[in-house]
Amino acid sequence: MDTNQEQATLWNGVAGRAWIDKKDVLDDLFQPVTALLLEEVCACAPTDVLDIGCGTGATTLALSQRLRGHGHVTGIDISATMIATANAHADADADASFICADAQTYAFTPASYDVLMSRFGVMFFEDPVSAFRNLRTAATSQAKLRLAAWRSPAENPFMTMAEQAAAPFLPPAPARAASAPGQFGFADRQHVQAILEQSGWQHIEIGAIDLLLTMPEQHLQDYFTRMGQLGRMLDQLDESTRQQIITAVRAAFAPFVHGDEVRFTAACWLIRADAASAT
Questions:
Q1: Residue 13 pLDDT
Q2: Dihedral (C-alpha) 18, 250, 28, 119: value to the nearest 10 degrees?
Q3: How far is residue 261's CA from residue 4's CA, in Å, rounded to a whole number?
Q4: Among 33, 43, 121, 195, which is least packed by CB within 10 angstroms?
Q5: C-alpha dihedral sign at 264, 226, 8, 185
Q6: At how many degrees (to 10) do helices 58-66 and 31-42 cross?
Q7: Residue 278 phi/psi, 5° resolution?
Q8: Are strands 113-119 and 139-150 parallel, antiparallel or unpaired?
Q9: Mean pLDDT across the stretch 235-258?
Q10: pLDDT confidence of 216, banded at 50, 70, 90?
């Protein structure tokens, strides 16, 4: 099974269901990232925007509200279940639409979008150069690219805490390959620079941003038992092991808990680029 097929299976299965079930919690959690990205996009005064890896549609619909009457936003995602959820949350008069497809290979109408954006949706391509070359065909010659992606696991301890705390109770897991498709696939700045250069994007800027993210403490256990690698494994374990892991992981998150609120810093890249001329 190739990487993109694995991603399709994952996001149409357990990972997609978890995001759908926890949509409101996750939309609130990532609101600071969404707000920053939307400011970047709106500064480009767009009329047609492509939201890559839009998931359940939070960024697509938020931007469509900002642009109401002045622009259209199209979300694309590989998950049919998440796209169905996005459509269900769209107002009847929303200037938004959704495509269920793989953005790496989808036959976009050429030169359709003047801004292409993504919040944590572009790190999963099997062949990122091919994907960004394909996305460039969808861009007008003056289009802007605006992306948010995670920096390294070491800089994002909250995002890896669950799997680290659970590791003593589980069989050894293979080491995370640097720059492999996945959550941290864009962690290396030079790797991202090379992908965009090789796929024809110009004037590339990759800047570090650190954003404070919060969630109510009451959602923490549900979050780490449903999301990420641990969330996909827990249901496969016996009840005793499962409870041991939950206890250990909850204790490991203690440094991030402040009263009734969980707080952590999201260490991200804000990536800007321009489309090369189509001529």
A1: 66
A2: -70
A3: 36
A4: 43
A5: positive
A6: 40
A7: -75, -10
A8: parallel
A9: 94
A10: very high
Nearest to 123 by CA among 175, 49, 180, 50: 180
Q: Do the Cβ atoms of 53 and 77 come closer than 8 Å?
A: yes
The backbone region for 234, taken as left when phi is positive above 0, alpha when psi lies in -120 to 50, beta otherwise, is: alpha
Residue pair 95/73 in contact by the 8 Å Cβ criterion = yes
CA-wise closest residue to 108 among 131, 132, 127, 135: 135
One-letter amino acid of 180: A
Mean pLDDT of the chain: 92
With beta carbons less than 8 A apart as the criterion, state whether 64 and 96 touch.
yes
Rounded to the nearest angstrom, the gap between the alpha carbon of residue 8 and the centroid of all alpha carbons in its chain is 14
96-100/72-77 β-pairing? parallel
How far is 81 from 75, CA to CA, in rounded Å? 14
> How is residue 243 written in tokens?
């409870």
Identify the burial level of 74 via C-beta atoms within 10 angstroms of its C-beta, where 0-12 means exposed, 13-18 middle and 19 or more buried.
Answer: buried
Residue 207: strand pairing partners: 270
